[in-house]
Amino acid sequence: MRPLLFFSILALSHGACADESPPSCKGEPTICPAFSTSTTCIAQFGCDPTGDECLGVARPCSLLSHVDCEGQAGCLWSSSSNTCNGTAWTCDIQFDQTECSGQMGCYWSPLDCGGTPHACEEFTTAEGCTAQDGCAWTQ
Fold this sequence. Notes:
The protein is of the alpha+beta class.
């Protein structure tokens, strides 16, 4: 066998002439503040949601007037003693903005998705890569 022919066959069998690169993750990950829900924020590796919760200290029932007592969850007006009784529900158990805003002393903190998303090139599997918004797995 001629040396040139042998080299050509060897080169082709080992992919020396083919432009084959290994599979990889490419793209530009979506920045964290672009996510508007806790679920989508958590799904982006490197992002961390804060807010999207009810904060504050609910006003105690004993300090409320008759009208305010009837609107405060956990409180009940007593006509016989002319007082507001019970234990106001805490802010942290108000799970939506409407309930939270209706509880005196509570306020809604909107979602803030912060952090730095992991770069696409950091992912070494198709599963991890495609789970990161903005990244794509290339073969």
